[in-house]
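User:
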Amino acid sequence: MTTPRIAFIGAGNMAASLIGGLRAQGIDASAIRASDRGAEQRSTISAEHGIETFASNAEAIQAADVIVLSVKPQVMKEVCLDLAAHIGEQQLVVSIAAGISCASLESWLGPRAIVRCMPNTPALLRQGVSGLYGNAQVSPAQRQQAEQLLSAVGLALWLDKEEQIDAVTAVSGSGPAYFFLLIEAMTAAGEKLGLPRDTAAQLTLHTALGAARMAVASDVDASELRRRVTSPAGTTEAAIKTFQANGFEALVEKALNAAAHRSAELAEQLGQ
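Assistant: Predicted structure:
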């Protein structure tokens, strides 16, 4: 497939990670450009990745095949209304802003091909996962372009329905924070058991990393992996039974439902 020309509107952390991922894949700097209001940010991203940058969004999108909207959700409406007259019919719009629906983007930009994405923060290390949804105007070639873009920073998974973005937000978008919370709690508990804090932290972090790598590499699901390391009447079983007796699974479900509900609320608020 011919390398698409990509323009980023907003050059913050997530845009920078996507640009870095694309460059690491061998995409030439001449195929990527970015705009940002901040002169310092433009200078930084240009120096790091060798791409052309602009103060004007309208200039940045000229001749681009893919326009990536990577500004904060709170300013998305303003940015889109200013861009609407400058976007061509054949240009694909990819939004990585949380809580902005395709319907809202279409109301501000007019009917056009739009892909809505929900990446997560490990994308900054190219270890992210993203949920993607494309509206009816997105062509097969444009789906490939969007997938190539998000695959530059990790796994990209297509969704059948836009409403599933709220579930993606709850599971993977907000998900890193849940694991950070568990890491905090395990570190604190290890310290209370008598370990030096640094030792407890290193044990927790590397256990989390090892468990995740095992789960990704395994041909069985997490429940089977858990069973394999839970000996009857052993130490692991004592801990697992304590988690379950205190409603661990129900609490996780309740927490993710709260996140998904809030995602839907934000979409309604930000789309007005």
